[in-house]
Amino acid sequence: xxxxxxxxxxxxxxxxxxxxxxxxxxxxxxxxxxxxxxxxxxxxxxxxxxxxxxxxxxxxxxxxxxxxxxxxxxxxxxxxxxxxxxxxxxxxxxxxxxxxxxxxxxxxxxxxxxxxxxxxxxxxxxxxxxxxxxxxxxxxxxxxxxxxxxxxxxxxxxxxxxxxxxxxxxxxxxxxxxxxxxxxxxxxxxxxxxxxxxxxxxxxxxxxxxxxxxxxxxxxxxxxxxxxxxxxxxxxxxxxxxxxxxxxxxxxxxxxxxxxxxxxxxxxxxxxxxxxxxxxxxxxxxxxx
Length: 289
Description:
The protein is α/β, with parallel strands linked by helices. Helix content is 34%, strand content 13%. The chain is built from 7 helices and 6 strands. The protein has helices spanning 2-26, 67-70, 82-92, 122-137, 151-162, 194-211, 231-241, and strands at 98-104, 144-148, 168-172, 223-229, 259-264, 270-277. The protein has a 6-stranded mixed β-sheet, sandwiched between helices. Helix 4 (122-137) packs across helix 5. The model is unreliable at 1-36 and 42-52 (pLDDT under 50). It is found in: Mitochondrion outer membrane.
């Protein structure tokens, strides 16, 4: 009986965490009521209730893969044994660690009017070579490379892939650059239209939910995956994965060709091992354009 009561309490806690994360996604792109100088006050929806965790409270079910949340308790018998429930939980429990390497594309021609013409500069091509060499030197068995479909990301991937022969590549529109959420504090030199936050924000949030999560229960060995995309996307993903306020994404800065390393443990805990690392590049090869 005590065991079942503990599970019920845990389930309530997971439900509270779920409400908080879903609310954070709903709030993406919410425009300010006044000017830039006005503080942003975000009120939780009525359905979130008092279950919403306070600041600094880790939601163990942030990726919706907490085993207890995946067990359909309604299909259980009225008095299931502890062994039966433990077996069901084990069926959904992750066993491997995911290593996620987020690579920002190299320097490119920013003045080109068409996206297809925003190709890498000569320096950008050198940066991609250095990043590829660095990844290869780690001696890891990379499982795949997922990259943005934008020209600068594709070209960066082409160069990096030469140093990682045999690693499969997958292109996706989800990782394209955009405006993930209105930054706080705002900046004067970059103010997209409000609609851009709604369009890009939904897509980038979808990329986060699709690619950033604990390993599948069927995965037996640790995985090493590379995602080659853009600064805004990476910064937003880092904030969401660490459960930091996503509005703070613009406070982070990433160099071209930099490596950000996230680790997702089987229990759902997330660690940031490197953020925008370019220590492998000579100082005269570093840029942030």
